[in-house]
Design brief:
Elements: H1 2-21, E1 28-29, E2 32-33, H2 39-59, H3 63-79, H4 83-91, H5 99-120, H6 139-150, H7 152-163, E3 167-168, E4 171-172, H8 173-182, H9 187-194, H10 199-215, H11 237-265, H12 279-310, H13 314-319
Antiparallel strand pairs: 1-2, 3-4
Length: 328
């Protein structure tokens, strides 16, 4: 794992250097590209990861190196911000703002996973791995899942009103469809809206399904309708990967967006009305959206942590007591 991390780090640093020297922006603020010079930050993250990874391979995951690994992992996670939106736009037939920026999101996310795995890996004596029986999350985590589900209800109602042709916040469904067309929405997206189905509501439904799969026992075993996989244990990475990506994207967006909306509500900053009749209408819609993302993102993070802890094998639990040695 340590060597794999070093290989990734060298490649990531080279990717950042090549994009910077070719004046290709890697970081975006919405649809607007950021300064090309920020590409040096990507190069620096890769170089730092290579140095720390090499030290781990040579000397093993010592406490100081573990801390550095987690620090670089956090930096890679920040660089991966926006991956969820790339996946969503591609899933509905829309293009990404920049192929290089999307590649940066993918590479950074892969690096964050490798760095986290390296920080946790130790070499230990072989042992029989026994997966624990499927269990439910604690009551506190399930209450968080309830909150994460309820937070999407106002958002879903608002979107469905528009999708069905109604009016909300002074804007009709026809006007919202025209806005989507003007903003370059894909044919799939527009077709769903013409059928009265909002694409973001469908994604929210998938998010709620994932959330409850993480906190309930049925999320650890393949269901009956999966034929050959029926009754087999679900690989841990299968639900945890989208959960981590979702939480890492929704929490910052929701928390920062909520802070901005709070400042706008207090009159400290002005909320641009955009496509809405007034700033108050735009603020109402913004509150509904960012509150849903913030609460659901936090609930997803708590559920993912609970799922990860509940599905650890007994072999992994014993390895935590082993003496750290070199990571291969």
């Amino acid at each position: 794992m340590g060597r794999a991390t070093v290989i990734w780090a060298v490649g990531y640093a080279g990717f950042g250097l090549a994009c910077t020297l070719s004046s290709t922006p890697l970081l975006y603020a919405g649809p607007r590209p950021g300064p090309v010079a920020l590409g040096w930050a990507v190069t620096a993250v890769g170089a730092l990861a290579a140095a720390v990874g090499t030290a781990v391979v040579r000397h093993g995951p010592r406490p100081v190196l573990r801390v550095l690994l987690w620090m670089v992992c956090a930096l890679a996670g920040i660089a991966a911000f926006g991956l969820l939106m790339d996946v969503i736009t591609l899933a509905f037939g829309q293009g990404v703002d920049s192929a290089a920026a999307a590649a940066n999101h993918v590479l950074a996310a892969a690096g964050a996973l490798l760095l986290a795995a390296t920080a946790r890996s130790v070499r230990h004596l072989p042992a029989v791995s026994e997966a624990p029986a499927p269990t439910a999350a604690s009551k506190q985590v399930q209450l968080a899942a309830c909150a994460g589900t309820a937070a999407f209800l106002p958002y879903a109602v608002m979107k469905l009103i528009w999708a069905l042709g109604g009016t909300f916040a002074g804007v009709s469904g026809e006007e919202m469809l025209a806005v989507s067309q003007r903003n370059g929405a894909s044919g799939i997206w527009l077709t769903l809206e013409s059928w009265g189905m909002d694409a973001t509501v469908l994604l929210a439904t998938l998010g709620v399904f994932l959330l409850w799969g993480l906190v309930r026992p049925w999320g650890q075993v393949f269901p009956r309708w999966t034929l050959g996989l029926r009754g087999r244990r679900v690989p841990r990475w299968l639900p945890l990967t989208p959960a981590v990506i979702g939480a890492a994207s929704l929490v910052p967006y929701g928390v920062l967006g909520s802070a901005y909306c709070a400042l706008a509500s207090a009159g400290v900053v002005n909320m641009r009305r955009g496509d809405f009749p007034s700033s108050s209408d735009a603020l109402l819609v913004a509150w509904i959206g960012v509150a849903a993302f913030a609460v659901h993102g936090v609930a997803l993070a708590l559920a993912a942590r609970s799922y990860w802890r509940r599905t650890r094998s007994h072999e992994h639990e014993r390895s935590n007591a082993a003496t750290p040695t070199k990571v291969s």
